[in-house]
Write a structure and sequence with these properties.
Elements lengths: L4 H28 L5 H28 L31 E2 L2 E5 H19 L9 H24 L3 H4 L8 H19 L12 H20 L7 H29 L4 H15 L8 H24 L8 H19 L18 H32 L6 H6 L1 H6 L6
Antiparallel strand pairs: 1-2
Helix pairs in contact: 1-2, 1-3, 1-7, 2-3, 2-4, 3-4, 3-6, 4-6, 4-12, 6-11, 6-12, 7-8, 7-9, 8-9, 8-10, 9-10, 9-11, 10-11, 11-12
Length: about 400
Amino acid sequence: MHWDTGNIAFMLVSTSLVMLMTPGLAFFYGGLVGRKNVLAIMIQSFVSMGVTTVLWALCGYSLCFSGSYGNAANPDFFGIIGNLHHAFFMNLGPTTEFPASPTLPLIVFVAYQMMFAQITPALITGAFANRVRFKAYLVFLVCWLLFVYFPFCHMVWGGGILQKSGVLDFAGGIVVHCIAGFAALACVFFVGRRKVQDAGPHSIPLVALGTGLLWFGWYGFNAGSELKVDPVTSLAFLNTDVAASFAAITWLVLAWIIEKKPKFVGLLTGSIAGLAAVTPAAGYVSTGTAILIGVVSSVVCYYAIWLKNHLDWDDALDVWGVHGVGGVVGVICLGLFAYKVVNPDGGADGLLHGDATFFLKEMGAVIGAALYAFVFTYVMLVVINKFTPVKVSQAEQEVGLDEFEHGEHAYE
């Protein structure tokens, strides 16, 4: 058995980087909320790491990556969800080869994809900050993974119907950011406005720390999604940084013009918008296109948040405006600007390079994903609320969820 030790090392580092993004998200969100709710929102990210890993071992990996659409020898369920061939990590040994890259052990891919599953539901938590009971969140976490994340992961990446039809998503514009962002919007509509508003971010340095960890981890998120080390890996790495940087500066300048001050939180938010938007396209477009994605996503997400505020939607930490809208913008740009020259083996040509069909497939997939994630999440919350209360009361909001839910305090 010949293993590519360099590739194994790269993928283990990438896996570690993606894992670091979930604690980074906890710091990012923790800094944005008020002092009485810091631990409550941070634990929602950290507990996702544990719960998701348990579910991944029991059935998650198998439902995402076992079976494929149209494969009579190893069928999935109608191209929507995988089978249980690898439930409880069965039929996975340390020397089992990863079919897409035979010099890589399959267990490395299992671990890498697990980190994506951990952070995706955690993204949603910023939308309902300060308003959801921890017990209800745990039920939400399990159900959302089973019925939203796992099916879309299989359909787009695991041999499901969308992948077989030619839909591309390099590192999670549809599978991560779109479905999380539109699920977040459904949560906003269900839980309603906060009765007790935060005065603003309680710790911008904490937000900056979280942003730095997210940005650092995103190199593993995007470059690692090539699943091997080659020129496309390098392209995805560079495109990630370029899009984030141009988006950050665009947001800073735009906010400076409109709000009359160069806001640090705006700079940080802009970088995350650019990172989310370049994610589906990182290994399929040129670096010039990545620059364009950074600029366009920053402007569109900035005005999406303006629209959210104008409509009085209480998406506390702008999950829909940054991740949902950013993910959709990235998929649209992929459909427009994908260029097979930059990725001859796995890429495609977008609308501006002559393939209107590919553009329509991307549009159909991202619209369908957004609608499903929104509708299912809202209905799921209605059902969960019949068994255990989802929302906290005004009195509990006034006390703060750190004290009410967890009996702990971030600060004395």
